[in-house]
Amino acid sequence: DPSENRARLRSDGPDRRSLRQRLRPADRAAVLPLLYTLVLFAPLDVLLGAATVPARLFLGVQLHSQFDRPYISTSLGDFWGRRWNLAVTTILRPAVYCPVRSACSRLVGSSPARLVATLATFLVSGLMHELMLYYLMVEPPTWEWATFFVLHGFLTSGELCLKWVVGAPSLPRLVSVLLTLTVMYVTAAWLFYPPLMRGSFETMAAAELRSAMGALSTSLFQ
Question: Mind telling me which residue stretches traverse the membrane in this protein (predicted)?
């Protein structure tokens, strides 16, 4: 039963919840989003990139990295379209974006069709993430993740409109990166992280990781 397993992972002992126990509720709201950001950005980019090395060495297969340094994104379009979770981007582009854009182009023209297709793609992504969150946390949906992705659909569409009206901004690269990461962090802390924080996701993930490492160690050295 997923709910029983989740309860078991949460009650594995005080040492596994020590970070939450040390932090006051007011401090958790500041510290945990930073922790989640570090876990999402650094390990995913590095570890999944490193996972391509054995495939190349032992199988002669060149696997594409699923993340391309998202921490240097210069815009939301750059982040979502070219750097973050490229496997999902590769799926959603032909499955949602291209068909919607093609259908809408005949009705409203090319430029508005790009906006509609962008919004539709983020909406589908948001619904997919809500389903994933339900299976992960076994909690009724709060639609925060869906709202997060729909919001970014509007923000990314706004970027497109701004480029069409005034052209690409000539900001220094560092400023563009800082602005992009600030928007990502603020919106994630507002909508993406709270369901994970309420569900003690970091405790569950740490327990699952220890369990997996223990099983791997047993199988290797038994």
Answer: 34-59, 143-162, 174-193
Local structure of residue 140 (DSSP, 8 states): -
pLDDT in tens, 15-58: 444 455 566 666 666 677 887 787 776 666 666 666 666 667 77
Structure tokens at 66: 């699923």
Q: In whole angstroms, give the CA distance from residue 79 to residue 74.
A: 7
What burial class does residue 175 get, using C-beta atoms within 10 Å of its C-beta: 0-12 exposed, 13-18 middle, 19+ buried?
exposed
Residue-range domain boundaries for the chain: 2-203
**Residue spans of alpha helices (H) in 11-109:** 18-22, 25-50, 52-54, 76-78, 86-92, 98-108
pLDDT digits (tens, 9 = 90+) for 89-127: 999 999 999 999 999 999 999 999 999 999 999 999 999
Tell whether the torsion through CA atoms of 43, 147, 64 and 205 is positive or negative.
positive
Q: Which amino acid is at 175?
A: V
The C-alpha atoms of residue 42 and residue 69 are separated, in whole angstroms, by: 9
- 20 in Cβ contact with 28 (< 8 Å): yes
User: In 3D, which of 68, 102, 71 has the Cα closest to residue 87?
Assistant: 68
Distance CA 98, CA 46 (A): 30
Structure pTM?
0.79
Burial class of 17 by CB neighbour count within 10 A (0 to 12, 13 to 18, 19+): middle
Identify the pLDDT of residue 206.
65
Asked whether residue 208 carries a pLDDT value surpassing 70, the answer given is no
